[in-house]
Amino acid sequence: MERNLEEIFQAKIDKEEKIEPKDWMPDAYRKTLIRQISQHAHSEIVGMLPEGNWITRAPTLRRKVALMAKVQDEAGHGLYLYSAAETLGIDRDTMFDQLHTGKAKYSSIFNYPTLSWADIGSIGWLVDGAAIMNQVPLCRCSYGPYARAMVRVCKEESFHQRQGFEILLNLSKGSKEQKEMLQESVNRWWWPAMMMFGPGDADSPNSQQSMKWKIKRFTNDELRQKFVDVCYEQAKVLNVTLPDPDIKWNEERGHYDFGEINWDEFWNVVKGNGPCNKERLEARNKAWDEGAWVRDAAMAHAEKRANRKNKKVA
Ligand SMILES: [Fe+2]
Ligand SMILES: [Fe+2]
Question: Would you state the torsion angle of the CA atoms of residues 248, 200, 233, 175, taken in this order, to the nearest 10 degrees?
């Protein structure tokens, strides 16, 4: 019976049909998606922190408005994704608890600090840029609610990427100090952005299963390669040097070769020892605690409305 169900399930996926919440699915598929979608949601939420840090210091009103809109979009992404994860049977309080107790992971990139205004540009260009590479194929993910959430998310991500690129483009046409600020920022963000695609294929044992289930469409290394190819050309427009002496066009492969990633740094940040891991978790917990009255008030209001409706019916 189980085997039969599993065959029907895989056949559906092979035909590019979506799996919906009430459809039968293997436990491992459900678990993989809960982990992936909730981690993705947490990343959107924690991702607001490094940029929120610069809203009050944005150099012009226009920049401030754009940055506020961008940070707000990330909050929305978190909410769509928590909703998508809930369709798989996990509830939101459990996910919040996993985040606030440090049990759940989120993208390590957000454990790096934003030290200059140029960092807001670099985040848009490189971090949202890498996110787009990862997320566009997720619009075709086999799980319907996740795929549909990603369609809107990706449209907004492309605005984020442009907003960052434009900040950097302006700096690249500015004073000597502005150009230095731009280069210094790209130097710090390049490698962490490269790590956003996760470990190399040889060290990513679950990738093959995710590809078979069509949760993933490309491997980590394939996505990373696309990212390098795109960024190298864009860096020329910005007049910045990517901090990798080994980047070189490879005629035979039709791609840019690039240098070795420092995986010790990656694992160290994943384990909680990055520059801002502790700070991010504290900020999230503080926001959660300080927002308790808002949640309580919203619940009380909902209850009042429900009571009023019931009275009318009676
Ligand atoms: Fe986002
Ligand atoms: Fe974004």
Answer: -100
pLDDT, one tens digit per residue, over 232-271 is 999 999 999 999 999 999 999 999 999 999 999 999 999 9
75 C-alpha to ligand 2 centroid (Å): 10
pTM for this one? 0.94
| Overall average pLDDT of the 209-214 stretch | 95
Non-local CB neighbours of 108 within 8 Å, separated by 6+ positions = 192, 195, 196, 266, 269, 270, 274
Rounded Cα–Cα distance for residues 191 and 172 (Å): 21
Ligand number, closest to the Cα atom of 74: 1
Question: Does the pLDDT at position 177 exceed 90?
Answer: yes
Separation of CA 70 and ligand 2 centre (Å): 7
Residue type, 264: D
CA distances from 57 to 117, 168, 244, 245 (A): 8, 16, 31, 34
The per-residue DSSP string of 189-244 comes to HHHHHHHTT-S-GGG-TTHHHHHHTTS-SS-HHHHHHHHHHHHHHHHHHHT---S-
